[in-house]
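Fold this sequence, please.
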Amino acid sequence: MSTPDFAARCAQLLERGQLFARRIRNNQYGPEYWFDARDIPDGHAWIASVANFFALTAIPGSYFTEEVRRVVEQGELKGGVPLHAIQKLIGLLASISDEMQNGLLRKVEYIFVASTFDDFLTHAADFHRAGKKTESSVLCSAVFEDAVRKLAEKVSVPQASRSLDAVIDDLAKQGSITPVKSRRWKSYAAVRNKALHAQWDDFDLRDVGEMLTGTREIIEAL
């Protein structure tokens, strides 16, 4: 699955919101509400899409998510689509778009990826605590490799069709990771190779635990 283009999606939602705002201002029922029964479902669908966008891109508990929550919980939405709700969400979309363009937020693509990786790594950690080396190592190996390759993509290190060791070497040469970290990551890559080739006797549960810790560090850097 390709990584979503959140910047493009934000622009789409902004454009739709601005169109809705103009339609509300021009309706025959007054400047505050959009009462045309044919249009209300579209308005609510847009609000739901905006709420979902912020749920995927903004950190839980941040200003963005709290303000969106206040808008969508308004009782007024049960009877129509208030212009001030549309305007508030347009403002939030414009703000987060500006933050992303100016580098004041981590790229939301990587926030999304990190969240997905974290879910898999949590399952791997659960298996590890239960002493299930096989299940834990396979899950962690997949997350480890994807995280390293995603980091390489982020810092413009070529990684397609290249071995994991080669990618790690280039990350170290570029200065994205230290030589010490490079050696450590290569040891995780060795565990990954053994796990994916069912060489279960060539590593132990402690090796998997170290790979889990190291993989979390990579995810935090995304």
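The CA atoms of residues 151 and 221 lie 8 Å apart. The mean pLDDT is 82.
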